[in-house]
Write a structure and sequence with these properties.
The protein is mainly α. It has helices at about 5-35, 35-65, 70-95, 100-105, 115-130. Helix 2 packs parallel to helix 5 (about 115-130) and helix 3 (about 70-95) runs antiparallel to helix 5 (about 115-130).
């Protein structure tokens, strides 16, 4: 993967995290009082995935630049985003005083946590968008 592609992928990830942080604040302020904390987090995983898709969709021409990227490039970008997001979520959760159990709950489908699905969507989004937008490989 070329350095400009990595730099652009990181910039897009920062935008995703910024928008997702605001999404989380609005979810807490608006949705939690209506449906409760856990259902709001489940809804947030779905709407968050849609936000990530939209950001990727609109930034894909810039991300691609002049590079004719192979499918592995899009998957590599997804992996980078997932790893950075996991680190960010864990560090932020711990900084906010959340227990490990509470953080892990969001990723445990047996407890209704959908963050794992959200991360799977994040992983696949660059590849999906590149294919749907018919970006040449």
């Amino acid at each position: 993967m070329h350095r400009p592609t990595i730099t652009r992928a990181l910039a897009i990830w920062l935008l995703i995290i910024l928008v997702e942080s605001f999404h989380g604040m609005f979810r807490t302020i608006l949705l939690v009082p209506m449906v409760g904390d856990f259902p709001a987090r489940q809804i947030g995983a779905i709407t968050g995935s849609a936000i990530i898709f939209a950001i990727t969709w609109f930034s894909m021409p810039w991300l691609r630049g002049t590079q004719q990227a192979a499918p592995k490039t899009w998957w590599a970008i997804g992996v980078i985003w997932v790893v950075l997001t996991l680190v960010f979520e864990i560090l932020l959760g711990r900084a906010l005083g959340l227990s490990w159990q509470r953080i892990i709950e969001d990723y445990n489908p047996a407890q209704g946590g959908l963050m794992g699905l959200g991360l799977a969507a994040m992983l696949a989004t660059p590849w999906l968008v590149a294919n749907w937008r018919k970006i040449k490989r």
